[in-house]
Structure formats: C-alpha cells, structure tokens
Task: inverse folding
C-alpha cells in the first residue's frame, strides 16, 4: 500500500535547522520540569506503599472518598478503575499495622460515609520501601542496558554514526515522555516503565527501516552528497513510516477514549512516544548522522 507516491521529493534535510530549534526547545521544556515541578510522581511500585482496589454498589465521587479517608492518609490518591462500574484504586503510604487490618479500617470509614455494606475490597497490594527502591534501581539499569545494547547492535549492523543517531533519538523521546508526566502530574509506575520500553522498541524499529535504506542508497549513489542520500532515503520510507505510525496511533487513541484510567496513562505514554518517535526518525536521526559525518565519516559502498 503506497500512501505517498514513491517519487516524492520533500526537502527534509533542508529544514533541519528548524528541527534543531524545535528539538532543543522540547528537550529544554522537558528538563525544566524538574526545577519547576520537581521529580516525577512515583507510584507505590517505586516508593513503597499500599494499593487497595474497592468496589461500591452505588455511584460515588472521588472527592467524597478522599474526604472520608483523609484521617488515615493525607497523601491519598483516588483513581477510578472502571468506566462501567464503581471500581476505585486507592494508593497511600504503607501503614504501620498489617495490610489486612488497615483494609478493614478503610472499609469501616467508607461504610460510615456511604452506608453499611456499600463497599467491598476487591484487591490488596502492599510494596515495602526496600522493594520499591530496588525496583527504581532495576528500572534505571534496564533502560541503560537496553540503550547500550541497541547502540552496539546499530553500530555493528550499520555504522557508528547511525548508531549514535538512533540512540540520541531514543534518549530524546524518553526525555520528552518523562517531561510530559512531570508537567501533567501523572503517576509514574511499572506500567509506564513498560510503555517507555515499548516506545524504545517501536522507535528503534522505525529508525532501522530508514537506516537500512540509507545503507542501500550509500552503495547505489556513491557519487552523490550524503545530504541528498539521506533525503532520498527518508522520502522512500515515508509511506511506510506514516502508515505504521498512523495505524498504531489509532489503536492507542482508542485506549485513550474507551480505556480505564489505569490504561489511559499507559496510552498517554505511548501516544507521546509514537508522535515524537516518528518526528525524531525523520527530523533528528538523519540530521544527526549528517552532523556526525564531519567527525566520523559514513563509508559509501
């Protein structure tokens, strides 16, 4: 299926200076989230705490739930779990007493607010602070190792300059996703980490397609300038890039519209990752390869 004609000649590389400005602004905006908003709001997966899933037999409001449980946890987070029913997820600090005892106390407070027998505990999960810290370290190392292995793979399969360009794209996308979650105040948990690792896999696949065409054109167009080869390669793979990103984005948008609150945060991470991943494949990777070529020449043929 050809959405874009194969003889398309869009001058992407000629607009690379505008891309430099936009990319720099987006990275700065994401990095500014730390001094302005602080660190991302970590979920109990990383900080430790208690998560209780409750179900009400009548419609209730999140603010009423929060006010009923304010005495047990000032930093309580209430999130609706299901659009079809009255299922809610409560997140709070780990209690001193046992989780089961604390859950009964929560039920008693909610019963006194909404009526006897109006709530039922459907799930209970407790993560200790030591486990949460270990998960934080594991998440950081998982991301670093993934990026390192991808750099090695891209350097061996293509060239070092292409590998560096691809890895910078991934770091660019991850920084923007992180900044998005800080600015919006959304919770960062293991589900979002899984979304970020998914974005890494998705983006590197898209970049590999473009790099593969660049490698082929380097052999076929040896006498032409590198900037023209990069432009032609992007144009030749543009139809595939737009189709893949477009259809993937449709599925993710469906999750945003019809999914639960828990799935929405996952879908938001994927949406930002796909949009900026597609942008970086076109406007970041190839211009960076052209820049690195001044110091690490790309071999033709």
Result:
């Amino acid at each position: 299926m050809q959405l874009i004609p194969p003889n398309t000649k869009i001058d992407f590389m000629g607009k690379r200076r505008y891309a430099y400005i936009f990319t720099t602004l987006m990275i700065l905006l994401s990095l500014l989230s730390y001094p302005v908003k602080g660190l991302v709001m970590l979920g109990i997966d990383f900080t430790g705490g208690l998560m209780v899933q409750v179900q009400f037999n009548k419609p209730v409001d999140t603010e009423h739930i929060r006010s009923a449980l304010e005495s047990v946890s000032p930093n309580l987070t209430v999130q609706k779990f299901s659009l079809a029913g009255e299922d809610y997820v409560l997140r709070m600090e780990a209690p001193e007493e046992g989780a089961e005892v604390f859950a009964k106390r929560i039920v008693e407070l909610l019963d006194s607010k909404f009526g006897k027998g109006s709530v039922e505990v459907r799930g209970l999960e407790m993560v200790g602070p030591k486990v949460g810290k270990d998960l934080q370290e594991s998440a950081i190392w998982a991301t670093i190792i993934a990026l390192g292995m991808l750099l090695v793979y891209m350097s061996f399969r293509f060239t070092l300059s292409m590998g560096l360009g691809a890895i910078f794209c991934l770091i660019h996308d991850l920084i923007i996703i992180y900044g998005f979650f800080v600015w919006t105040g959304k919770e960062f948990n293991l589900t979002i980490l899984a979304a970020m690792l998914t974005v890494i896999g998705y983006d590197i696949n898209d970049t590999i397609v473009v790099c593969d065409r660049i490698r082929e054109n380097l052999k076929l167009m040896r006498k032409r300038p590198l900037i023209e080869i990069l432009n032609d390669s992007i144009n030749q793979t543009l139809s595939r890039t737009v189709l893949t990103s477009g259809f993937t984005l449709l599925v993710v948008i469906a999750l945003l519209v019809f999914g639960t609150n828990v799935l929405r945060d996952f879908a938001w991470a994927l949406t930002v990752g796909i949009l900026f991943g597609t942008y970086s494949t076109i406007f970041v990777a190839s211009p960076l390869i052209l820049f690195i070529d001044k110091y690490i020449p790309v071999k033709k043929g």
